[in-house]
Amino acid sequence: MCASGNASGASTRTSGSDVLVIGGGIIGLVTAWRAAQRGLTVTVADPAPGGGAAQVAAGMLAAVTELHYGEQTLLGLNLASAARYPAFVGELEEASGRDTGFRSCGTLAVALDSDDRAHLRELHALQERSVLESVWLTGRECRRLEPMLAPGVRGGLRVDGDHQVDPRRLASALLTACERAGVAFRRTTAERLTVGGGRATGAALGDGTEFAADQVVLAAGSLSGRLAGLPPELVPPVRPVKGQVLRLTVPPAYAPFLSRTVRAVVRGGHLYLVPRENGELVVGATSEEMGWDTTVTAGGVYELLRDAHELVPGITELPLTETRAGLRPASPDNAPLLGPTALPGLLLATGHHRNGVLLTPVTGDAMADVLTTGELPEPARPFAPGRFGPAAPVLQEQPV
Ligand SMILES: Cc1cc2nc3c(=O)[nH]c(=O)nc-3n(C[C@H](O)[C@H](O)[C@H](O)COP(=O)(O)OP(=O)(O)OC[C@H]3O[C@@H](n4cnc5c(N)ncnc54)[C@H](O)[C@@H]3O)c2cc1C
């Protein structure tokens, strides 16, 4: 553990560990768990660990249906993480004694009109060029798979490899696994990064103490750029993208309402319905640039219900049990920032945007590797934080 003083020379430091993780969302927790498994002493600072965007997220593991033009480099990381998911949840469930709600049910992406159909055809072509598995279905074939779909569905893509997990249960399993692996928690905010001798030395915490660490991982989600004490050129370019989500309940008499995740582009907006085995049906999500606002608006709920009703008319019969908004931590290229910064001792694990749940396994492995060896492993190398600035310690390939 680092024993050097901080820049101000203050001596209020009370404790320390090899690694301090700032932020206990799923990304901070998986980093902490994996690092502790490698023998490092780890502390997580967060007033509410296990909270964050995972309390809102749908939990689609959608490497194939989330493919976008220009994001082929991210696709590689998404696929690497999707491939790790079954073993990852197996290990996590054993370590925590908790179920994560992982479900290998596949996804159906459908089109409601000729514009949507053309858009889906383009996505299918891109998937084929990227050697991804997806099957084009007629509207009738879609409805045979999912009889609750609207009669007007014009066609769709069946993607058997895009699964789902319950992000709330994932977060709670990670929290327990961390505790069992010896990760310590400081239930307070990190107010300021401390720097001394040309390196990060820890953080000043909201409870008035200072915490010392050899390595500090900034994993504060959409707030990652707001930590005081960061050298200005190293402030991560992460911004909040608001998403409103509804939760409904499928009564046993209606089950199975949907057997797999169903998604569509309706009026240019992305809509999805994610059915869980426990009867929960998640309907999402808006995508809004509203700063850190998490108000649920009548307009957001209206749009989601209107579009969901167009796709699956029977949805209006179901009890609406929850409305909530969360913040995706978005980066300029929609890909995460992983690994060392130009300030020795400061690492980032943030910017996972709309794929943070999917990217949890690969992020944990990559961060544990870099914390123990100093090197980012292969699938994570294109995502080094330095790709956005001249102060890069390692200049990596730019995602295309
Ligand atoms: C509506 C919506 C739907 C989504 N759907 C999906 C999906 O289907 N599939 C998918 O893969 N991803 C999805 N995501 C994205 C995913 O949820 C996020 O990428 C992921 O949860 C981000 O995790 P994180 O740990 O980086 O950040 P967060 O979850 O934001 O956690 C950050 C944590 O840091 C803490 N913190 C902040 N500042 C400080 C500080 N100064 N000191 C200490 N702690 C601090 C906070 O309290 C919080 O606990 C969705 C997100 C939203 C909002």
What is the H/E string? EHEEHEHEHEEHEEEEEEEEHEEEH
- What is the terminal-to-terminal distance? 39 Å
SS content category: alpha/beta
Regarding CATH, which class of the largest domain?
Answer: Alpha Beta
As a percent range, the share of strand residues is: 25-35%
Give the overall average pLDDT. Answer: 93
The shape is: elongated
Secondary structure: number of strands:
18
> Which cofactor or ligand species appear?
flavin-adenine dinucleotide
CATH architecture of the largest domain: 3-Layer(bba) Sandwich
- CATH homologous superfamily designation of the largest domain: FAD/NAD(P)-binding domain
- Radius of gyration, in angstroms, nearest whole number: 21 Å
Q: Roughly what percent helix?
A: 25-40%
Q: Give the biggest beta sheet.
A: 8 strands, mixed
How many domains make up the coordinates? 2
CATH domain fold name of the largest domain: FAD/NAD(P)-binding domain
Q: Which residues sit in consecutive blocks of at least 5 with pLDDT less than 50?
A: 1-11, 390-400
Query: Can you count the helices?
Result: 7
Throw out a few tags for this protein:
400 residues; alpha/beta; FAD/NAD(P)-binding domain; D-Amino Acid Oxidase, Chain A, domain 2; 2 domains; eight-stranded mixed beta sheet; 18 strands; elongated; disordered C terminus; binds flavin-adenine dinucleotide
